[in-house]
Specification:
There is one protein chain. With 403 residues, the protein is an all-alpha fold. It has two domains: 183 residues, MFS general substrate transporter like domains (Growth Hormone, Chain: A); 200 residues, Growth Hormone, Chain: A (Up-down Bundle). It is built from 14 helices and no strands. Helix 3 runs antiparallel to helix 13 and helix 4 runs antiparallel to helix 7. The radius of gyration is 21 Å and the shape is globular. The protein starts with a helix and ends with a helix.
């Protein structure tokens, strides 16, 4: 291999690793803190256990707002300023949570973390789109997603380790270290990828126009709604996973291992989806995945009711593994279907869809989480009801395509 080829390979590998690190910041900020929720609530004076879920849920509030802003801002000012601003906001939120003296201070910090992390998630994809296209872009995103998949598997165990060794505040210290490391790496190694002649002015009118366009396309609107409902059902799981697995089923320190084990289903779905779309249409994959989600949840609802909301752990895992595989198939395909009519406004279109679906998920997931009653019935009924509504929305969208 020539020295130039070797250098190009190293630059490619480093670029993929950096993009994956930036995109993983959000997932890491969610999953690593899960084992610490009871300790955070106890230390900050929370008596109602369900309130601890807001440490997870309110991060998505910041993300919803941020996704709408960073896409068009990066189109106007460049990718690097948008990432810088986002990382500085994330660091500010991390410091606020790290030194939180009350629960309100903690939640404010989490909203800021979400607002900041939205930049790394949205703008990172734009950076890849600036540098690569076609098969090479697909290859980059495949590598990035492979690394990204590891985060939900490993982060809870790392959070549990930090909790045991140094307490919950050390987890936020780890977030701070990772953010500072990412900021330094990004500033030193990645050049600006959007030239000045390709930039577009940042205006509120442009954002409003993009929202109107998403709402005016029945396909975009339908699959954005479904993405929000499906993500909301999963957020309901994230909100209650610690209470269900660690407390209700008594897993204790084994909770991160079981959580990571279940996350493997998402990884398998993500890796298989790239092959499945070669043989089936995205619509068919979405339809079959939603049908699987509904059938599994309907059958398991009877099992859960039979056991008064507390079926055996093995049966819960047997239910959740294929369910999460179905949701893993849905995530990528729903966004792609929502984006199909918006190729002419791809950047701001993706931001708008992400913002609307994330806010929908926040509302739905919080309702499921706050309904937790020391049984799994609210979670399973949430999956079932939202799956049925999603199938109804998909049917509504198909009616316009049939005309």
């Amino acid at each position: 291999m020539s020295s130039k080829a070797s250098k190009d390979t190293l630059e490619f590998v480093e670029s993929v690793a950096l993009i994956a690190t930036m995109m993983s910041l959000t997932a890491f900020s969610i999953d690593a803190v899960l084992p610490a929720l009871p300790d955070i609530g106890n230390d900050l004076g929370i008596e109602e256990e369900n309130m601890n879920q807001l440490v997870i849920a309110l991060l998505f509030l910041g993300m919803s707002a941020g996704q709408m802003i960073y896409g068009p801002f990066s189109d106007a000012a460049g990718r690097k300023p948008a990432i810088y601003i986002g990382l500085f906001i994330f660091i500010a939120g991390t410091l606020l949570s790290l030194f939180a003296a009350c629960f309100t201070m903690m939640l404010t910090g989490r909203v800021l973390q979400g607002l900041g992390a939205a930049s790394t998630r949205i703008v990172s994809i734009a950076i890849v789109r600036d540098q690569y296209e076609g098969q090479k872009m697909a290859r980059v995103m495949s590598f990035v997603m492979t690394i990204f998949i590891l985060i939900p598997i490993l982060a809870p165990s790392l959070g549990q380790l930090m909790l045991v060794l140094s307490g919950w505040r050390s987890i936020f210290g780890l977030f701070l270290t990772l953010a500072l490391f990412t900021l330094t790496w990004f500033s030193l190694r990645l050049p600006e990828t959007l030239s000045k002649n390709r930039r577009r002015p940042f205006t509120v009118k442009r954002i409003v126009s993009a929202v109107r366009e998403v709402l005016s396309h029945r396909q975009s609107l339908a699959f954005t709604i479904i993405a929000g409902l499906v993500f909301g059902s999963f957020l309901g799981y994230l909100n209650t996973s610690q209470q269900i697995l660690q407390k209700l089923y008594g897993l204790g320190d084994k909770f991160p291992l079981v959580f990571g084990f279940l996350a493997i289903a998402f990884g398998a779905a993500t890796l298989m989806n790239s092959k499945l779309v070669m043989h089936f249409s995205m619509r068919e994959l979405v339809l079959r995945a939603l049908q699987l989600l509904v059938v599994l949840s309907a059958v398991y609802m009877f099992a859960a009711l039979w056991k008064n909301g507390f079926p055996p752990l093995w049966s819960l895992l047997l239910y959740l593994m294929p369910l999460f595989f179905a949701i893993g198939l849905l995530f990528g395909n729903l966004n792609a279907l929502a984006m199909e009519p918006l190729g002419h406004i791809a950047g701001i279109g993706a931001s708008t869809i992400g913002s609307i679906s994330t806010f929908t998920a926040l509302v739905v997931g919080t309702l499921i989480g706050q309904s937790y009653n020391e049984t799994i019935l609210p979670l399973v009924s949430g999956f079932l009801l939202l799956g049925l509504v999603s199938l109804g929305v998909m049917r509504w969208e198909a009616m316009s395509a049939d005309r």
